[in-house]
Design a protein that fits this description.
Blueprint: E1 7-13, E2 15-16, E3 26-32, E4 39-46, E5 53-57, H1 72-81, E6 89-94, H2 105-120, H3 127-142, H4 150-155, E7 158-161, E8 166-169, E9 176-181, H5 188-193, H6 201-219, H7 223-228, H8 236-239, H9 246-256, E10 260-263, E11 270-274, H10 279-289, E12 297-303, E13 309-312
Parallel strand pairs: 5-6
Antiparallel strand pairs: 1-4, 1-13, 2-3, 3-7, 3-12, 4-6, 7-8, 9-11, 9-12, 10-11
């Protein structure tokens, strides 16, 4: 049990899941160039009334289940109660990411909660076990275990995720990722349900070849070639028509000068790979044209290379 502080705070960053060329196996953590961090915060402290408590705050907490028992952060606490003995805790989730945005919102809450609880009780779980726990909890939302959001939020950077292993890949220091959330809420479960049980072998082989070329280009630091390989031939053709304004936005961003444009996770957020010269113009167009309500936002980010952060308060 942690004795250095009364509160442990963890921040987990938003991420791009799928990353177009790597459906379900490739994800990137995000760090805005300016303004507030993009992600969720969880604080853990000793409960004053000898009973576990969960409090929810933040801009988007109203979109979470009202019942404590339905919250993924609560599920995370219950998982740790199966692992170790520790006193009752008060857990506060600051929900700063919109639900159903395609930015790994559920993964952020899970990773921040798992990291904070684990640190508070003395870190009984090592990195691999922590990742496995987070993946299992994330599977409750999507219907199946995939690590392309939890892994980058936990580890940082661009991460290739296998079933039982994750590897951080090199990423261009000059890439700027323009992230645009339209304000539309889309269920990950729904967007996965529209995909077929299997894809044509030729299409899968094409996607695998492009993923191989993307990885090889990154290993040799040919970032222009790597960006040209960021395309999704599997899920995007089925999902894109269901996301309001996406196809127009994708075409326009490419015309402005983006090197690649894709759907972040299941959408509706899109990401555009840009350089420092084109990113402001792409962001300005998206801010004017890809917003459908007041929840929408556009941010210019870079890959976040640092893992989930822990503070002892």
């Amino acid at each position: 049990m942690n004795t250095r502080s009364t509160t442990v705070r963890a921040f987990a960053a938003a991420s791009i899941g799928n990353f177009s060329v790597g459906f379900d196996v490739l994800g990137m953590a995000l760090e805005p160039l300016e303004g507030a961090p993009l992600g969720d915060v969880v604080e853990v402290s000793l409960a004053s009334d000898k009973q576990d408590r969960l409090h929810m705050k933040g801009e988007f907490c109203a979109f979470l289940p009202i019942a404590t028992e339905a919250n993924l952060v609560w599920h995370c606490l219950l998982e740790f109660r199966q692992i170790a003995e520790f006193p009752p805790l008060t857990i506060t989730l600051y929900k700063n990411l919109p639900v159903g945005s395609g930015l790994g919102s559920s993964a952020c809450s899970i990773v921040a909660a798992a990291a904070a609880i684990n640190a508070y009780i003395g870190s009984p779980l090592e990195k691999t076990a922590l990742l496995e726990l987070c993946g299992r909890l994330e599977g409750e939302v999507s219907g199946s275990v995939h690590l392309d959001n939890v892994a980058p939020s936990l580890l940082g950077g661009l991460v290739m995720c296998a079933v039982d292993d994750c590897q951080q890949l090199p990423v261009s220091p000059d890439w700027q990722l323009v992230i645009a959330y339209s304000g539309e809420q889309i269920s990950t479960h729904t967007m996965r349900a529209i995909l077929p049980a299997s894809f044509a072998p030729g299409l899968v082989l094409k996607q695998m070849a492009w993923l191989h070329e993307f990885i090889a280009a990154g290993q040799s630091s040919d970032w222009q070639l790597a960006a040209s390989k960021v395309q999704d031939f599997l899920a995007e053709p089925l999902r894109a028509p269901l996301i309001k304004g996406y196809l127009t936005a994708q075409r326009t961003c490419l015309e402005i000068g983006a090197e690649a444009v894709g759907i972040s996770g299941s959408g509706p957020t899109l990401f555009a790979i840009c350089n420092s010269k084109t990113a402001p113009s792409v962001a300005a167009w998206l801010e004017r044209n890809y917003s459908i309500n007041s929840s929408a936002f556009t941010r210019i980010c870079r890959p976040r290379l640092t893992p989930v952060t822990i503070e002892y308060l």
